[in-house]
Design goal:
The protein is α+β, with helices and mostly antiparallel strands. It contains 17 helices and 26 strands. The strands form 8 sheets. Strands 4, 5, 6, 7, 8, 9 and 10 form a 7-stranded mixed sheet that branches. Strands 3-13-2-23-22 form a 5-stranded mixed sheet, covered by helices on one side. Strand 22 and strand 23 form a beta hairpin. The chain is globular and about 85 Å long. It starts with 7 loop residues before the first strand and ends in a 5-residue tail after the last strand. The relative contact order is 0.16.
Length: 642
Amino acid sequence: MRRSVRTATLLVITALVVVSFSGVTEASDYYESDSLVTGPYVDCIEFLYIGNQNQIVRALQAGSIQMASNYFIPSYLPALEEDPDIELYNSTRNGYGHISINCAKYPLNISGFRRAFAYAFDKQLLRVNIMDGFSQDHDSLVPYCNQWCIEDDLPWHYYTAQPDVGNSILDELGFEIDGVTGYRNAPNGTPFDIAIESWSYGGGISQIGVDALSALGVNATTKFSDYIELRDRFGTHGDYDMIVSSTQFDTFDIQWLADEYGSMNANIDYKNPTNFRNESFDAWIDRLRYSTTREDIQEAAAAMQLILHENVPRLVVYQHIYRTAYRVSEFAGHVGSKVSSITNQWTFRNIHPQSADFGGTVSVALYNDIVSFNHFTPDYMSDVYFHYRRDDDVIVLDLIYSSLFDRGPDMKPVPDLVVSMYEETHSDNPNVAKNRIRFTMDIVQNATWSDGVPLTADDIVFTFLYMMENGVAHTPFNLDWSYSEINSLWSPTPYRVVIEFSTESYWHFEKFAYEYILPMHIMTNEELMEGSDYLSWNPGINASQPLVTSGPFLLSDFSLDYYNDVNACEFSYNPAFYFAPERPSTETTTTTTTTTTITLTTTNATNNQSMNLPLIFITASISCSGTVIVFYVVVKFQNRKS
């Protein structure tokens, strides 16, 4: 018998409930992207691990693959550009390279000095000589791919080297040239010098920074430091002048602006390492964190970016451009994404043969093999504190799992399972306690799991209870979020779910919107409910652990390498997918019902062997809801004790 849930105390109430949404506005400001959800149109997507760029280029040219997930280095691009059947697509990194400036150290604490440096820095030289043209001009401290970025609306830019502007600023601030040394002194008359530190990779950037300071009459040198020592000194507010580094963001939430640049964190280790203090910036922090509307968040984000742009605690020196390739002679309907390029779920849902509406097999080269179809398992660990999933794994997982929302090509939310959503605070509904926010979502009524069981609101409630029960929100793959602020969640009807948070904030939406939904009937067993076992869950590959999913595609075949990683896999379109288009009448069809059910038959796989997956039988069933509604209310959470 399965052990009882020990770390989440649940109050289960059976009651007759009348739910009213009088006067409540649908929260459509959460999702603005054009809908691309209908699909898929192709029969099959094949993925093959090819870890060599030269082999990938040859496969593209030969037509044995239609696209590749990897970003190509410059030397391979000419051959791809010359091929009339191949097109290239540019996307940007959710991150950038930068030079951090110690705003607590005189005279670097003078914002005009930092701004003069920004004007003098030659980003175009860096793009040509260091980035091989694979970067674009960028100033905002929010990456270009982020929906909150105001790069295109900034009133001025530091794109080109303008030392004349920088020198004028320093002249006005009283940085006078010393007649003996030839360098500028600080406004108090004292001499100073600047060291731009880096480890091995940043030496060229450091030199461009030194050249910019020299053009301003400032005594500057480059300095190479040990990476670990420099990282720790930088993170703990140790002594430095300027440091070359880079930042990669794993989410599109920008609350980090407050942590990274808020004055209250200028003495807290691993927060605000530039020691930036600005009262005008601080005045926007609460608006950024606790506003409940998109308009308020946008206003705060824009104001904070503009303040940082003017005061330059950190100068962005490059924004990566990634280039991927895909064939256009066989298929049409590719959808480019700001971050995930062409090999994203929107392409795989919308792609179709050039000469037909349906059919065909699309072959895709992956640059990494797939560790597992368990989306809880991080497959890369750079150090003990930082784990993440590689892009190739996300590409595959997005094809088979459902979530309440997806990120559109523009990185804005697009409804997936959700049909409509209402957001309420106490001012909207007196039944919502003060200082809380409630999200009420109606979901599609024709979603089914791949084993034929209907997907309902109970699965969604279970998903978040499971994560809280097992502490999943605190595991490496999801460090950014804690579910401790979920006050209650319940399913008043089979197709409505309510999530309430103990504080008001727009950002709570991000905490639940994109999580893959779990099949409750599969996960509620002794093995998987044990908190120590969810990371070793290996569905589809382990014969005793079925891969039960609900997305637009179904796993139909795969092979394993020597290390039991997936080096090739195939996904067939899911005819019961809730957004599946109607195919020609020659296809197997179902009558119109509330729920479409799939029965999936599988065989087992062993190393280096194929697995023939689905033999699909489509049946129909009708689900009905009664008047008795079960509420699951989370009363208390605490960590599991082993």
